[in-house]
Specification:
mainly alpha; 2 domains; two-stranded antiparallel ribbon; 18 helices; 1% strand
C-alpha cells in the first residue's frame, strides 16, 4: 500500500516541478527584463567603438573620462535613486578608492621617492592594476560598512546631514594624512595610463548590468518601498535599516571602483578632486537625467558631459575675447537643475527606464496620432 502511494506521489511531484518551471519561464519575459540593459550597453559600446575608430586622442580622452563619470553616476544612483536619500558622503568613497588603488599599484621605489615618510608596509605593498582596482573598491566598501550601520538608523533628514558631515571628515583626512595621501599636495602616480577606453567600457558594462539588476531584485524593491513609505514598509516586515545598509555599502563599492579608474586615468590626484565640485556634477546628472532610473543616470551623464564640454569652449572663447567668464559652466548647469526640479522633477526619462520596446511603442503611438489627425480633419470638413 505504502509503495503504491509513494509510486503515485513521485510522478505528481515531478510533474509539479516541471509545471512550476514551465510557468516561470513562460511568465518571465527575459526580453523585456533585459531590454533596458541591452539598449544602454549597445548605445555605450557603439559610441565607444565609433570614437575608437575615429582615432582622435582628444575625443577618446573625453569619452573615457565620461565613461568613468558614468560609473560614478551609476553608483550614486544605486542608493539615492532607490532610497530617495541624497548620499553626500558618496564622493568621499570615490576618493578613498582613488587613493587606495593608486598606492597599491605604485612601485615601492616610486612611493618612497614621492612620500619618503610613508608607512613601510605601504611602501612594500605592490599589486597589479586589476587587483589594485578591486582593493580600492573593497577599502571604500569596508569604510562605508563601518560607518553606515548607525547612520541608517537615523531619520532621512538627520541622516543626510550626518552624511554631509561625514564627507567633510573624509575630505579632511584625505587632505591632511601626509604619510599616505601626500597631504594637500598633488599625489602623482607616475608611469603610463592604465585606464584605457576599452578597460573603462568593459567595467561600465558590468556596472550597468549590476545596478539595473539590483534595482529589479527583491532588495531593490524593498529599498524603494522604504523610499515611498518607510512606516508602511516596516509594518509589512521589511527591515529598512538592513535594506538601506546594503544599498549604501554597494554604492560605496562602485564609487571606490570608479575612483580607482579615475586615478589611473588622470595620473595625478588631490583630495579636492573628490569634494563639492564632483558632488555637484554627479547630482546635476541625476537631476537632469532622472534619479529614479538607471537610464536617467546614463542619459544624464551623456547630456551634462556634452553640455559642460560645450560650455567650457564657450568660456574659453569669452575669455579670449576679453570677458570675465569664469564659472559660466557651473552657473548654467545649476540653472538647468533648478528648471528641471520645477518643471520636470523626474528628469528627461520621467523616472522610468528606456528600452527598445519603449521607443518602438513611442514611435507606434506617434504614427497612430499622425494617421488619426488627417481623418479627424476630413470628418470636420465634411460636417
Amino acid at each position: 500500500m505504502r509503495s503504491s502511494m509513494s509510486m503515485n506521489k513521485a510522478p505528481v511531484t515531478e510533474l509539479t516541478k516541471r509545471s512550476a518551471a514551465k510557468v516561470f519561464f513562460e511568465n518571465f519575459d527575459f526580453s523585456r527584463k533585459t531590454s533596458t540593459v541591452v539598449f544602454l550597453i549597445v548605445i555605450l559600446v557603439a559610441i565607444g567603438a565609433f570614437i575608437w575608430w575615429l582615432n582622435i586622442p582628444f575625443i577618446e580622452d573625453i569619452f573615457t573620462s565620461s565613461a568613468i563619470t558614468l560609473i560614478m553616476a551609476l553608483g550614486f544612483q544605486l542608493y539615492m535613486g532607490n532610497s530617495g536619500i541624497l548620499n553626500w558622503s558618496y564622493v568621499g568613497y570615490v576618493g578613498i578608492g582613488a587613493f587606495t588603488s593608486a598606492i597599491f599599484s605604485m612601485t615601492p621605489a616610486l612611493k618612497a621617492m614621492q612620500i619618503p615618510t610613508m608607512y613601510p608596509f605601504l611602501i612594500g605593498l605592490h599589486l597589479p592594476f586589476p587587483l589594485a582596482l578591486v582593493a580600492g573598491a573593497l577599502v571604500a566598501m569596508i569604510v562605508a560598512a563601518v560607518v553606515a550601520w548607525p547612520l541608517m538608523r537615523l531619520s532621512d533628514s538627520v541622516g543626510a546631514i550626518t552624511q554631509f558631515a561625514l564627507l567633510i571628515v573624509i575630505n579632511v583626512i584625505l587632505s591632511q594624512w601626509s604619510k599616505v595621501t601626500n597631504g594637500p599636495r598633488t599625489f602623482t602616480l607616475g608611469g603610463t595610463r592604465l585606464t584605457t577606453l576599452w578597460v573603462t567600457l568593459g567595467i561600465a558594462v558590468i556596472v550597468i548590468i549590476a545596478v539595473y539588476f539590483f534595482k529589479e531584485s527583491s532588495l531593490g524593491l524593498k529599498l524603494r518601498a522604504t523610499r515611498d513609505d518607510r512606516y508602511a514598509a516596516r509594518s509589512s516586515g521589511i527591515n529598512f535599516v538592513a535594506v538601506r545598509y546594503f544599498g549604501y555599502v554597494a554604492s560605496a563599492f562602485i564609487g571606490g571602483l570608479a575612483g580607482g579608474l579615475y586615478s589611473h586615468y588622470i595620473l595625478s590626484i588631490t583630495a579636492a578632486s573628490f569634494y563639492m565640485n564632483e558632488l555637484f556634477t554627479l547630482l546635476s546628472m541625476l537631476v537632469i537625467g532622472g534619479s529614479m532610473s538607471v537610464s536617467g543616470a546614463f542619459f544624464g551623464t551623456l547630456l551634462v558631459t556634452l553640455a559642460r564640454q560645450g560650455l567650457r569652449q564657450f568660456e574659453l572663447f569669452l575669455t579670449r575675447s576679453g570677458f570675465e567668464a569664469s564659472g559660466t559652466t557651473e552657473i548654467v548647469v545649476a540653472v538647468l537643475m533648478v528648471v528641471f526640479l520645477i518643471w520636470r522633477a523626474n528628469g528627461i526619462t520621467g523616472g522610468g527606464e528606456l528600452s527598445w520596446f519603449g521607443i518602438k511603442r513611442f514611435l507606434r503611438i506617434g504614427a497612430v496620432k499622425k494617421e488619426k489627425i488627417p481623418k479627424q480633419k476630413q470628418q470636420e470638413e465634411k460636417v
